[in-house]
Predict the 3D structure of the following.
Amino acid sequence: MNDKIQDTWLLIAVVLGICLCMGFIFLVRLLVRQYRRSRRAGAIDEMEGHDFEYFCAELLEKRGFVDVEVTRGSGDYGVDILAEKEGVTYAIQCKRYSAPVGVEAVQQVYAGRDYYDRMVGAVMTNQYFTASAVDAAKRLKILLWDRGYLDSMIEEGEKSF
């Protein structure tokens, strides 16, 4: 009977040890992910506007977009990137801001989408959007790719390498 009790306690100790190791590994992975995200966020937030446009273009290419083209800086009619994915053409406005993106960006890409004869318009930012921008985007059928979406695109790209 004593051997059975010892075996039971040994089994409990092994299971607890495994659980502690798994928890430690999970915690380390979580901390590494947060550290990478904060470093990446700082780097993105410090980019110049044109550098951010090229960063976004590269990110789109990694996500399967083709014919990705950064438009010229001035006179771009509110569109910074032209791209295509699975037969759908996109006009994308990039905004590297330090505050929420307002309705003007949505209006610009709405006009630019038609100017470049694209099927979809999107605004891509390192921030989030104001309520009026979200409302306008819904009405004008413009996609909003905010900081959270940008981070998920980056993380997905990191997993594929």
